[in-house]
Design a protein that fits this description.
This protein is α+β, with helices and mostly antiparallel strands. About 40% of the residues lie in helices and about 25% in strands.
Length: about 170
């Protein structure tokens, strides 16, 4: 990974597996995180991803797994601890040979949206702690409905997904 011309500049200086602790300024909640790499001006997160070099597929996975919120939180902590603003970068590495690498910089607008979401979550946590009330996400029973695509299938047309079966 250090031989990659895209990654090497980030790894030239910095701290691996760097633990941070801080207090969120708005909520007063104690926070912590372990950054994969803290470089001057950059929070770097290393991810193994089957589709690392496919931006569309990797973006979908990043959204599903909350990478923006994770990195926004780490940036917040790094900024508070160091007094310096940081970029957020993901180094995505494919888990099979030739172990191709892609570097993604998260844009400021999307990180701002993630910060807003984090602020909302922390405000909810603060309220729950203050009232000792933990209501959960839904106030009412939710209806579970079969999606249209599933209703159109019968067992003879379903082909098992081998990736799903391995994880089951």
């Amino acid at each position: 990974m250090r031989s990659s011309p895209l990654v090497a500049p980030y790894l030239a200086n910095g701290l691996p597996e760097h633990a941070l602790g801080w207090v969120d300024e708005k909520s007063g909640i104690a926070m912590k995180g372990r950054l994969d790499w803290l470089a001057p001006g950059t929070v770097l997160d290393l991810k193994t991803a089957r589709f690392a070099i496919n931006p569309r597929a990797f973006t979908a996975e990043a959204v599903r797994l909350g990478y923006w919120k994770q990195l926004a939180l780490y940036r917040m902590g790094a900024s508070i601890v160091t007094g310096q603003e940081h970029d957020a970068v993901v180094v995505a590495v494919e888990p099979t040979p030739p172990y191709d690498i892609a570097v993604y910089r998260l844009n400021a607008e999307d990180l701002s949206t993630a910060v807003y979401d984090i602020d909302q979550m922390l405000a909810t946590l603060q309220s729950c702690r203050a009232t000792d009330s933990w209501p959960g996400r839904f106030a009412l029973i939710q209806e579970l409905r079969m999606p249209a695509w599933a209703l159109a299938l019968d067992e003879s047309t379903v082909t098992p997904d081998p990736d799903w079966a391995e994880g089951a």
